[in-house]
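Students often ask what a holo structure prediction actually looks like on paper. The answer is less mysterious than it sounds. You provide the chain, you provide the ligand, and the output is a string of discrete structure tokens encoding the 3D arrangement of the protein together with L-homoserine.
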Amino acid sequence: MSDFNICIAGLGTVGSSLINIIEKNKNKIENRLNKKIKIVGITAKNKRKKRSFLTDNYNWYDDPLKMIKDCKPNLFIELMGYEKEISYNSIKFAIKNKVNIITANKALIAHNGNELISLAEKNQVSFLFEASVAAAIPIINTLKSMIISNKIIKILGILNGTTNYILSNMTNNNISFSEALKDAKKKGYVESNPDLDLEGIDSAHKLSILTSLAFGLNLINFNEIYREGIANIELQDIEFSKKLGLVIKLVSIVEQINNKIRLYVKPMMLNKNSRLGKVDGVLNGIQIQSKDIEDIFLEGQGAGGYATASSIISDIYDICINGYSPAFGIKFNKLKKIDKLSVNKDFNSFYLRLNVLDKKGVLAKITKLFNENNISIETMIQNPKNMKIKNNSIPLIIITHKTYLQDINNLIKKISNLLEVKDKPFFMQIYKV
Ligand code: HSE
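The corresponding structure tokens follow.
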């Protein structure tokens, strides 16, 4: 058996779990890979931090670049998680030194993937990232092999476990957003910058990667992904969604329409019995629609040390057994660019919550604005007896017939100007799959 030398940068939950798995299953893994696995160097921000393995058993480096230079490994595993900085610098340095790369760093790929992946191809080293999206769900390899014989037309996903945990907790236990956030923080689910989860940034990073794989595209400009977060969702929205037989989820969608794509991340009300609607707690779920076969639906653990590390092990297997393969399954210069459709032309039903004064003539003023903006009302709920009164106002819930997002935005601007409407109106797309 020849040696396969690995350097690991980043020893948080995932890095430590990876070392635990390798230590516990060394013989089994080596027999499958037909290689002697040697972790020849490790590095992280803080050497003294308590970890689930003995750091003293390994060669410690303070500087990832020096580690790569001294160890000359076959594989560099980057788990530091920075969008640029040392994650980017060390990966670039490793590629230039003909070292294979595995990373779980979705932010780095979404922002710098085109450059790093084309550089890896020039140097004929693998750049694999199964662990970057939906941890234990093998979505990257599924898409790479699916596109060979299937034309994918749409992907819908719950790609962030933290926000799904928060929304599920609000739904199942009738607690407010802030209580559910506190609980998620206590359980260690929330990223150190909570906006990454709550504002849909983490989901958008993952959606950008899935989009490239599914449609054979260069990574798109990250700033072009439309995003809405979950921080404005109130318990009363959850309660109303239940009354309507719906459930609120943070959904990431990409779809091809003619020769363009539309992609976005936003909270939506889904049918509670739909496959995505039933994805509960910290789980992730991904539905792939293709022209040629029935939908594929994958559900599983989207975060966590073991779940993520097990996907890294599958990438190590790929490099050892199959050798070099292009990061997106096809050569970098064969990846295409594509125009994006504006979300403003998205045609859907919407849920609106307006906090209005409970007095004569208010409803008439509001429905007049709906009429002027060509938006038809499907359902209206005004039930002050059961609702908490806030700033002397009561919630008025309106479900629209299908309409364009841009018309809803115009309507909301006008409704906000009415003196009888308190607080900022809240709205959400309804997606009945
Ligand atoms: N913050 C991410 C999530 C971690 O909640 O899904 C895994 O990428």
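The chain has 14 helices and 18 strands.
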